[in-house]
C-alpha cells in the first residue's frame, strides 16, 4: 500500500470510527453487559484495527471487517473472563422448551442472553446493527447459507422462549 493510499485509508477509518462509535459500543455492550468493559473492547478493537490496517484488502469492506474485529474481541473477552458457556444446539433446544421458568418477566434481552453465542451474534448483527445477511456472513466469517440456517434456528429458539413466557404470564 502506498503512502498516499495509506493516509487516505487512515482518514476514512478515523471518520468511520467517529460516525459509528455508538454502534460499536452497543455491539460490544450486547455481549458483555458492562459499560466499562464495552468501552475497553471498542478501544481494543480500534487498536487491533490500526495495527492490522494493512490486512484490509478493500476499503469497501471496512464495515464488516471492523464489526468482525469487535465481535471477536467481545467473544475473546468473554472467554477470558469465563462469562459465557457455550452449549450445543440440542442442549439449547432442551433448555428453551423446558417447562420451568427461572425468570419472573422474561424480555427480549434476557431471551437473547439464553442463546448460544453463534445465534446471538447473528440476531444482534442482523436486527440491532441492521446488517444484511451477506454482511453478517462476512463479519462472522461464515457462508451465507450457514448464517441463514442459524438465523432461522435462533429466531425459532427465541420464539419458543418468548412464547413460553407469554403463556406462563397469562396463567
From TrEMBL:
| Presence of keyword Ribonucleoprotein | no
A single Gene Ontology molecular function, please? DNA binding
- Tell me which residues make up the RNA polymerase sigma factor 70 region 4 type domain: 107-158
Say if the entry is tagged with keyword Transcription regulation: yes
Record key words, sorted: Sigma factor, Transcription, Transcription regulation
Q: Which GO terms describe its biological process?
A: DNA-templated transcription initiation
Q: Which domain of life is it from?
A: Bacteria
Tell me where in this chain the RNA polymerase sigma-70 region domain is found. 17-83
Instruction: List the SUPFAM superfamilies hit by this protein, alphabetically.
Output: Sigma2 domain of RNA polymerase sigma factors, Sigma3 and sigma4 domains of RNA polymerase sigma factors
**A Pfam family recorded for this sequence:** Sigma70_r4_2
Similarity field:
Belongs to the sigma-70 factor family. ECF subfamily.
What's this protein's name? RNA polymerase subunit sigma-70
Amino acid at each position: 500500500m502506498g503512502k498516499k493510499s495509506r493516509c487516505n485509508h487512515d482518514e476514512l477509518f478515523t471518520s468511520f470510527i467517529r460516525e459509528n462509535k455508538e454502534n460499536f459500543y452497543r455491539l460490544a455492550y450486547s455481549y458483555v453487559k458492562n459499560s466499562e468493559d464495552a468501552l475497553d473492547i471498542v478501544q481494543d478493537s480500534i487498536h487491533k484495527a490500526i495495527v492490522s490496517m494493512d490486512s484490509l484488502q478493500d476499503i469497501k469492506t471496512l464495515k464488516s471487517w471492523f464489526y468482525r474485529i469487535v465481535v471477536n474481541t467481545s467473544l475473546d473477552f468473554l472467554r477470558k473472563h469465563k462469562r459465557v458457556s457455550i452449549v450445543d444446539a440440542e442442549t439449547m433446544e432442551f433448555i428453551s422448551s423446558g417447562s420451568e421458568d427461572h425468570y419472573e418477566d422474561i424480555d427480549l434481552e434476557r431471551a437473547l442472553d439464553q442463546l448460544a453465542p453463534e445465534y446471538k451474534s447473528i440476531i444482534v448483527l442482523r436486527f440491532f446493527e441492521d446488517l444484511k445477511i451477506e454482511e453478517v456472513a462476512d463479519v462472522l466469517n461464515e457462508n451465507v447459507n450457514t448464517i441463514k440456517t442459524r438465523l432461522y434456528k435462533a429466531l425459532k429458539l427465541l420464539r419458543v422462549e418468548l412464547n413460553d413466557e407469554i403463556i406462563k404470564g397469562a396463567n
